[in-house]
Amino acid sequence: MTEPRNGSGTDRRRFLKGAALAGAAPAIAATTSVTQAQVAAPRHIPSALPPNAHQIAAETHAPGPIENRIGGKPGSDFMVDVLKTLDIKYTPSNCASSFRALHESIINYGENKAPEYLSCMHEESGVGMAHGYFKITGKPLMTMVHGTVGLQHATMGIYNAWCDRVPVIIIGGNDLDAAARPPGVPTFHAAQDINTIVRDYTKWDDMPTSLQAFAQSMVRGYKIAMTPPYGPVAISLDAGLQQEPIGAHNSGLYIPKFTMPSPPSGEMGAVKDAAKMLLAAENPVIVADRAARTPNGIRLLVELAELLQAQVVDQGGRMNFPNTHYLARGAAVAAQADVILGLELSDFWAVVNSYTDNGEHGIGYNSAKAKAGVKLISISSVELLTKANYQDFQRFQSVDISMPADAEATLPALIEAVKSQMTSERRAQNDQRAEKAKKAFADIRARETAAAAVAWDASPISTARLCMELYNQIKDEDWSLVASEGNVSNWPNRLWKMEKHHHWLGRSGGYGVGYGAPASVGAALANRDLGRFSVSIQSDGDLMFAPGVLWTAAKHKIPLLSVMHNNRAWHQEVMHVQRMASFRNRPSNYGNDAGPIGTMIQNPDIEYHKLAESMGWWAKGPIKDPAQLGPAIKEAMAVVKSGQPALLNVWTQPR
Amino acid sequence: MKTLFTLSLLATGLLATSAFAGDAVKGKATFVGKGCWQCHGYEGQGGSAGPRLANTQLPEDAVISFVHNTNGIMPPFSEKLISDAELSDIYAYLQSRPKPADPKTIPLLNLK
Lengths: 655, 112
Prior knowledge:
The complex is a heterodimer. Chain A folds into 3 domains: 75-250, Thiamin diphosphate (ThDP)-binding fold, Pyr/PP domains (Rossmann fold, 3-Layer(aba) Sandwich), CATH 3.40.50; 268-449, Rossmann fold (3-Layer(aba) Sandwich); 454-568 and 605-650, Thiamin diphosphate (ThDP)-binding fold, Pyr/PP domains (Rossmann fold, 3-Layer(aba) Sandwich), CATH 3.40.50.970. Chain A is built from 23 helices and 19 strands. In chain A, strand 1, helix 5 and strand 2 form a beta-alpha-beta unit. Chain B is an all-alpha fold. Chain B has a single domain (2-10, 17-110), classed as Cytochrome Bc1 Complex, Chain D, domain 2 (Orthogonal Bundle), CATH 1.10.760.10. Chain B has 5 helices and no strands.
């Protein structure tokens, strides 16, 4: 038997409404008594009714707020007021009933500005777009996700953001009141602790149960997300809280002021010890992963490297160090170091050890690759935030100096400490070290270009050719490589001139495939607003996880040149399955494909250019002849400069 | 042991590059059919997953031994999976690849 919605009970929404009515008791009491008197009076119909209070007010006063059926300003309007104080520019989201009230308030009450609603086909796309957007602007976006199922769709993207130390604000809808919410689908989509599925890989989550708590939660969440180490936060909003009027019980509502937190920097004693150790080293090496949070981080790292004449390995979590600098090196130099300074490393163990997937019984083996006695210094804010379940903290690596602190914020103090401890004898060594380093750098560059020349005219097109045809067309623009997923043998980092923070945005973080396409669109959105040219190297497998983000780019006129690295496989897995077959000493079954069954994307080949065209992109392909690639890129660039996204489907070598 | 012996010969320069006994055309089919392309590229050009093999300076015997016995990054392919004769064909295919142009003559590799 169904309980009447207006029956007695402990319905929270009824309780809230009751509380609101009680707060407005005097006015309501007067209204109520008049109504009762009218009901009790004999029926009498005058020829002309005298104006009532409302009509008098309408004729003699300034117009008041337009009345609505809910009897006041909706709670979700107040939520929009809160969002506007945080200057969140966009909310890429897939629409859903559990946040319909906030959705309506954003586009109508908030006039669809700050945040502007961007239509997404998938929650993972919304999170991925926010991920990419942050890497350009340094500002988080908010994405709204629907109840249980929307959050479930979003999880992989949230995990990537967590591992990549990127703030994303996830607003989840949830209809909490089991007695009041609609039965059926909305109840399938509700949960009593909805954020539990992302709690292991968010910095913080909340489920405020009043509007005032929402205001505090939102500002707190923003602050937590934006305190290094950055990370995603999740705030779940009850549908009733969004939909109901603010009510008199919330008449004292206020919005807390947001103050940008300063990043944690290293303790001065440890900083001085680190400077001493680095200055005493014969061959200091700096390894940076997510060290440069801002463009200033690059400048600081260059200053430190030159002071020490230390070689720098940029692991590429961010654009940390110009690859044109004579101190830029590949990972192998760490093996010769006597001191290694690790800056925001996600895996220090792998800097000094290696794992070879080729041991007895098919199990890999470990080996040390650093010199015996090497001293290790770590500056990493991630040590301030380690959770238990997911293994993104990697293997434990003992170090000699450990600073749980933000690397970029610590670099100025470290630079000053190095300067103050620098002796004239040590300074005199720098010229000699620099000369040697410049020669080594020139040799490395020569070897890179020689390697790129191999199979230059091959078809399918070599990844080196793909990258250099592309760079040739964009090099004179203010370009930004917004994603490079699928592994093109790192040619952009090896051969392009990467010097600015927006030239390279790093990768997904958690290696969850499907990041490249939405992150490209999000970063391109940010670059569009800055008048910058966005280009992505888009792999085939990555695109097919949620290709609907192509439509979002076309819908919202986000210019992006997407050049596909279409090797027609989930290529990492091609090699994994082949490896297993070799270990087990049996031929790998390819079926009708060119690689192990289940790893190839062929028969039929996907016509990505047609897929993109169907969603409003300019597109061309498949391009298999390297001679046709340059002209096609040029043609596509003209389209992108006109404000449209464009895609080239290029058949490539595997890596 | 065989690998060690081969490598020591390499180090002392005692092994000269042999004449290519294999068939390059068959070698190409085997290179693709056995999955060598997966890490080394269809042209044996190499990349992030495996080194360049095209026009390799390693002697044929050393390559054959390495493929059968490696315990490095590359998984071993036993003689059951790929025979010496097939590896000879692959070797011939790799040696038949056109020599890469001098990068100084490729404008795109000399961009300013």
